[in-house]
Sequence to fold (186 residues):
Amino acid sequence: MQKRPNPRGNPNQDKFAHIRINEQITNVSSIRLVSDEGSDIVTLDEALRRAREANLDLVEVSGDQDVHVCKLIDFGKYKFELLKKTKEAKKKQHIVTVKEIKIRPRIDNHDFEIKKRHALEFLQKGDKVKVTLRFRGREMVHSEIGMNIINRFVEDLKEQASPEKMPVHDGKTIVVVLNPANAKVV
Fold:
């Protein structure tokens, strides 16, 4: 059984498609050549000759200036270093998600504390928390009770979170979004 080629190709090749090396550098009469010895302005043919002598590649670092800047480096090693840097950057980033906690106006103290504990866990992970209080039927008559519960929730978590804006009463719901005050990314 023969393996079919991946239709998308190597995903890492796309990242380096914009980098021109050796003979791909065209339409340039002179370049600024940066090497271990320093930098000087030379012709493209001279730079390619020096690259072959040193058994290195001529890589265009910056092609958007009057004089293109090129370096004498090993392109394979350069690609490896760039991939390593992007992987490190991905490891350190944290995607902030919005976690929702739903409560009711007739919530019991114990249930309130559990919901508050869950919100605290989310905030410590660095996520935002959206607290939604929903009214049903005749509960709307006493919407101040719901607002008191939301305010109590915000007040209890004020050291770990700050509200994005004041609680909003929108129809049958009251909503507030809490941002982590000091996110400890785990």
Observations:
- The beta strands are 30-35, 38-43, 57-62, 68-73, 98-103, 128-134, 161-163, 168-170, 173-180.
- The chain has a mean pLDDT of 81.
